[in-house]
Specification:
With 190 residues, the chain is an alpha+beta fold. The protein has one domain: Trna Endonuclease, Chain: A, domain 1. Helices cover 42% and strands 27% of the residues. Strands 3, 4, 5, 6, 7 and 8 form a six-stranded mixed sheet that branches. The protein has a two-stranded antiparallel sheet with strand order 1-2. α6 links the parallel β5 and β6. The protein is globular, with a radius of gyration of 19 Å.
């Protein structure tokens, strides 16, 4: 199948369409990170009903913050702002939903993060790795960041990464449904 668009290279489009389901329905594949980021940014911009240039600026600021100031600064400044931008009509009803928003945001800023990482004693909610270390996240809903941190420590979620050359940190995050936002995350060495 070849689709020709006056603005696009046909070979990129063909690789993007991974399956033709019927004449009006296609399954899209994502051929590279640039297209993945563009789709995610456009999706979020559309959902939040903000201009693409505004959203792109916010993401660029968060990406730069991650690179220059590190994970802790990103969490305390940009993550709180990201949760504050969630429209009031959207109810974050539980911990799973809060984690989804968090993972989407972190992926959009280009963080090397993955959710639900297995270990011998359970599952870390997320693990982020960058040049400064490995950050093991535990989330709570309607509790405290200290409780989240306590669970990560008790279950030793960071142990699989202790043999690396970089330090390991535990991060406790709590979504407060009364405030409709997150408390200041706690970051401590493992």
């Amino acid at each position: 199948m070849t689709i020709i668009c006056g603005r696009c290279n046909p070979c990129h489009i063909v690789r993007t369409i991974s399956e033709v389901i019927d004449t009006n329905t296609f399954r899209l594949g994502i051929p590279n990170m640039e297209i993945s980021n563009s789709l995610a940014e456009g999706y979020v911009s559309s959902i939040l009903d903000i201009g693409m240039s505004d959203w792109t600026e916010q993401l660029a600021d968060a990406r730069e913050g991650l690179l220059r100031r590190g994970v802790e600064a990103l969490l305390k400044k940009n993550l709180k702002a990201a949760f504050a931008a969630v429209p009031h009509e959207w109810k974050i009803e539980d911990e799973k939903e809060a984690k989804r928003y968090f993972l989407l945001f972190m992926k959009l800023v280009g963080a090397d993060i993955s959710g639900e990482r297995q270990s011998a004693r359970g599952r870390a909610d997320a693990v982020l790795q960058d040049k400064t270390g490995t950050y093991v996240f535990e989330f709570k809903y309607g509790k405290t960041p200290r409780e989240a941190l306590g669970q990560a420590r008790t279950k030793e979620y960071g142990n699989p990464w202790l043999d690396t050359s970089l330090p390991v940190f535990y991060v406790g995050v709590n979504y407060d449904p009364a405030k409709r936002g997150i408390d200041d995350p706690l970051v401590e060495p493992a």
